[in-house]
Amino acid sequence: MFEGLTINSIAKENFDTMAIFRCNQCGYLREVANQHIGKKVKCPVCQKVMPIHDTLLFIKKVLKKYLSMQTEFIHLQKSLPSTITEISDEANKNDDSMDIFNTTAMTEKQQYQPILDWFKSKNIQLNIDKEAVDTTGFFDEVAVKLGDNYDLLKVVTDKIKYIQNKGYTNMTLNLSDYSQEEADILKEFCK
Fold it and tell me: Domain limits of the chain?
């Protein structure tokens, strides 16, 4: 800090060119006279001592940092798996164009690649049997049944969660508490 000057008195002096005082603590920003470049003063807001910067050098450093971050951002965008856009494209397709009972959309390598990467990071080598991964139809049908009859089938899924948490191996569901149509849906689902 230099004697007898504050950030306010420096700025009041009349000069053609101006330097920049920017506080890294609170973000306070103000133009000051060029003759004070390199000197340190207290921030009038938070009292943190900071240097006065040459405007041109300050802007060059800011731009350099910005361009570096922009380059890193572009690099990260390019390194994202293309599956993210493929998945969103698939999700945005018209519902009529996909046969949800016969799709392998979630069984492609890019879907389980993060799992493979995790095992690889633990030095565990996995070999994927594509035929074993393909669950076409089965899980899709269960998902549709759950979605179409959620309020009714929630009773079954809640009971399944309960018995699993308790370590039991079976459960009882009294079908006489339900209409014939509901009982049929419950029996079909449980099969």
Answer: 7-77, 87-190
